[in-house]
Specification:
Elements (H helix, E strand, L loop, with lengths): L13 H12 L8 H14 L2 E5 L2 H11 L7 E5 L5 H8 L3 E5 L10 H14 L5 E5 L8 H9 L4 E5 L7 E2 L2 E2 L7 E4 L12 E5 L2 H11 L22 H12 L1 H19 L5 E2 L6 E2 L5 E4 L8 H10 L5 E2 L20 H9 E4 L7 H17 L1
The structure holds pyridoxal-5'-phosphate.
């Protein structure tokens, strides 16, 4: 059965089409060109730091870990509730991931759980070198507290801001809050280049090295010479042209996502749904509206997803917490992560595309109400 109402489909139009055709006609059909330069310049202006576009958010995470010299034998602390690409990047560099639990309000990395995890590390004689913190579904994580805790042990903090372009924290933009950040422009994100991402950093040396690696580590010689392994991670000029059109509308997109969220909240809170709480002085881009369903023995997220599916509406489970994944590079600790499982079991992602019409959102809300009436 195909969906009529999708979770977070791309929302592109004439602006993106025209920019794409312009790039095509200019024959800059390569991972170089004016659209790419313009896209990066606008990202830089939006976030307030050096930004280089790459082929995916996952590639960006990989480059950032490499820039911080994280490699075999190292340990990286990671948000437990995140998309698996966060920990995949840790494996790419041969390091191991240690999972940190989430708080029950924002579902982001919990500073108390971080302290507990660091105590466990001390007991085990493990010294983590870096921490990857996800701004989950666009909600800014408690970065100041996390930075303060990590500073005591010289732990580098990297933001996984894949879902958080346009979100802000105490006036700073997600992507410019720590020692480097990754963005994603995958098809489902707040802006898309079909597939794509970016590295963000204030460290000039890291910036140059990440660009060098992303461009096949070509030495600056008149012939082909490589003294390091490179990666083909650059974004295409054509993709960047689409991204440029999208990025120009970022403010409107954030406003639309937030209004979609508010409408769900107003309609579903009275039924007992609970939403990610936005901390003071933070603004989430509300990339996806996610909620915990009411506690009710007769209801489950899987059933509700199936019920909506029969109506042509796409809803999904939250990211499965990483401690549920049988990946060999995830370190087993004695940290209690059962709260994250509770969030997962009751969590649902609702259709939140910026192209969602009022009528379609009404259908989603009425569909959810009908499910509860059917129990
Ligand atoms: C939290 C998080 N990290 C990393 C990624 C990876 O980004 P990409 O799909 O662009 O590789 C995504 C999204 O897909 C994500 O949601």
């Amino acid at each position: 059965m195909s969906f009529r109402i999708h979770l977070s489909p791309p929302d592109v139009g004439a602006t993106e089409r025209n920019l794409l055709l312009e790039a095509f006609d200019s024959n800059w059909i390569a991972p170089f060109g004016p659209a790419l330069n313009e896209f990066e310049a606008l990202l830089n202006e939006t976030i307030g730091t050096n930004v280089s576009a790459v082929s995916s958010g996952t590639a960006a995470l990989h480059l950032l870990l490499k820039a911080h010299n994280i490699g075999a034998g190292d340990y990286v602390l990671c948000s437990n509730i995140t998309f698996a690409a966060t920990v995949f990047a840790v494996d790419y560099v041969g390091a191991k991931a240690i999972l940190v639990g989430s708080d029950s309000q924002t579902w982001n990395m919990c500073p108390d759980s971080l302290e507990e995890t660091l105590n466990w590390c001390r007991k085990e004689g493990i010294t983590p070198k870096a921490l990857l913190v996800t701004h989950l579904y666009g909600m800014p994580a408690d970065i100041f507290t996390i930075l303060e805790i990590c500073k005591k042990q010289d732990i580098v903090v990297i933001e996984d801001a894949a879902e958080a372009l346009g979100s802000s924290y105490f006036g700073g933009m997600c992507g410019n809050l720590a020692h480097g950040a990754a963005l994603s422009f995958n098809g489902n994100k707040i802006i898309t280049t079909s597939s794509g991402g970016a590295v963000c950093t204030n460290n000039e040396d890291h910036f140059e090295r990440m660009k060098f690696w992303a461009n096949q580590a070509k030495d600056n010689t008149p012939f082909y010479m490589h003294h390091e392994t490179g990666y083909n991670y650059r974004l295409s000029n054509l993709s960047a042209a689409v991204g440029l059109g999208q990025l120009k509308a970022l403010e409107e997109k954030v406003a639309k996502k937030r209004s979609i969220f508010e409408r769900y909240q107003n309609a579903l809170e009275p039924l007992g749904f609970q939403f990610q709480e936005e901390p003071e002085l933070c603004e989430s881009n509300r990339w996806l509206t996610v909620a915990l369903i009411p506690e009710n023995e007769k209801a489950s997220v899987s059933d509700l997803i199936e019920y909506l599916k029969a109506l042509g509406i796409e809803a999904r489970h939250l990211w499965t917490p990483m401690h549920m994944m049988p990946l060999p590079y995830l370190v087993k600790t004695d940290i209690d992560l059962s709260g994250d499982l509770d969030i997962f079991v009751r969590g649902i992602c609702l259709p939140s595309g910026t192209g969602l019409t009022n009528e379609h959102q009404t259908e989603v809300i009425e569909g959810i109400k009908a499910y509860y009436q059917s129990l």
